[in-house]
Amino acid sequence: MTIVAVVRWVDETIFDLGRQFRWSYLPPLMVYFAAGVAALTGIVGTFFVKEYLGLSAAFLAGLTFWAGIPWALKMPLGHLVDLVWRWKSLLVYLGAFLIAFSISVMYGLIAHTEIMTQFMGIEAWYVVSVLLAPTGYVVQDVVADAMTVEAVPLIDDSGKAYSDGEIKLMHTTMQTLGRFAIVSGLIAVAILNIAMFSGVGALSQAEKAAVYANIYLLALFIPVISITGVVLGSILLRFRSRKLRRQGFDKGSIERMLSQPAEVTQPNWWILGGSVAFGAFTLAVGLSNVPLAQEIVFVGSMGIVLFLVYRLVLELDSDLRMPLVGTAIIIFAFRAVPLPGPGATWFEIDVLGFDQQFLSVLSLISSALALAGMLLLRPLMAKKSIAYLVAGLSIAAGILSLPNIGLYYGLHEWTAPLTGGIVDARFIAVIDTAMESPLAQIAMIPMLAWIAKNAPAHLKATFFAVMASFTNLALSASSLGTKYLNQMFLVTREVRDPVTDSVMAAADYGELGWLLIAVASITVVLPLVTILMIQHSPLRTRQ
What we know:
By secondary structure, the protein is mainly alpha-helical. 74% of the residues lie in helices and 1% in strands.
């Protein structure tokens, strides 16, 4: 490859994305950025659970399932956005309130424990916070998805309509920048965590608690970011409206181009009725003590979502229906693979000695390289099918899980003496994170761009929401799988009484190795088998 070819590749892959940026993209990007900044409390939350709560790995995996349920509620919210398109920004304010309340609960638990426990136990407050936060984020996310459609202009500065190819490119760029904004938020908070956790290992428990509380106080800035994005969006729309008016467009035409879909959205009572049934069903089962409540909610939710997907794809042209369904199933399988659960992190903290600051460094490396991966793989995403991408990502994820398995079985104890202490546990963790990190944000970009381009103009937000509900239910399936594996392979951490410091539960990581092997195997096998079945069926996709 010549120098000229390399320069051209760098220009087309990296700098061209910057040239395609438009100021109209900024408002939804700020909402996405706020979602990335939400990771600010991730590490402190992990240590809070480990140091303050006696919850098992299986219980925490089950709680993750319930925390994922609000993302399935993107169905009614997406349709609601289509129905109240002009006033959709109000939902961002609602989401900001829920997020702020969730963060305030965690701050109160750490800084004012005695006051909080007068009303409810620590575990109960923690569950409330865990469930409120995703509810707020999903409300904001569904509006941000709709804002990405609004952000792509239909005409240029001279009033000439863009071609279909140009609009497709802008939608792809918008969705790529959306993932960029999320990862950029992750990078920002990773750097902040590294600074705030500096020297925390030498602090007393009370001093650590003060650091944790300050991080949650700082996190209250998250809803401010998303609200700022909405306000900025309103300002930019006014500027675009004035510009179009100067070009001679009448008020009705301007509203159609900037504020409203080409066709007025009518209430879809199948979606609204199904969504009410979904919410009532989930609350009824979730608040009861029936056995297998999570499984019942998952099966019922999946049935309702599949019915709504069926009703919605009828709005598409016949040649687009089957490929979309096939694509959604492949992404579902890719996202449904189980995870090791919190036990793997507990092992890294207790046995490998990873502290808060080092985990923040790993988060920074992961986020930065995810950003680089999206840049470098952008041409591949534009040319290859989702089936091709998911197959490659699944194989890569399986291979890259091997270093973590090796760390459990003492790989670092063999490599460190041979390399003079260089290739120790932290070195292996850094390298593994560096190789694995670009995988996480890639698979969804082509599907989001496809929906943005091909969904009916008056149902953009609804399509985003329903298909996202389906693929997000995959994360609920992943949580269930994680719970089952943690019940099969029991992993416990040491739990001490916060008052007497006596050991209440002993650490036992004896079955963690088998857990990691099982997760790695499923990570590879499940998506590949699904792709093989889809590509040899009428659902075959080349999207």
